[in-house]
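Quick note —
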Amino acid sequence: SRPIGDASVFGPAAGLPALLYPRTDRAAVLASFAPEVAACAGTDPVAAGILRDAARGIAETAAAVCPPATGCPVAFTGGLFGIGPPLLVPVREELSRLAPWACPVEAGGGPLDGALRIAGALAGGTLRLPVDGSMLGLWPRPPAPG
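Predicted structure written out below.
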């Protein structure tokens, strides 16, 4: 495969920020690069480094909310993980290093399913994640108009 810096892969690197950052769908556009980055990672150290950095960030996030208890289940879900081993292997390695008590498990659904489980656990008082009121909380539903 071609090196990730090759202009034929994503276009001239110098012009990418100006093309991407004004877009409202930039997260989706950037995520669409992931399969090509994964395809290049076996032979391109820049692509491998991008995936390693992403894996570290994902593992740091998981470790931050995984209570240091034996067998804390951690599931990875979402479209980005569809690229498979080029991302999953370094994520698992980083998670093992950062949170050796974590126990990777198969996801029981997609990201929305996970959000619903978190909301249900929060509402039911069974949430095992650290709770920070500025990020995750319960608010009373406003009364229905009259």
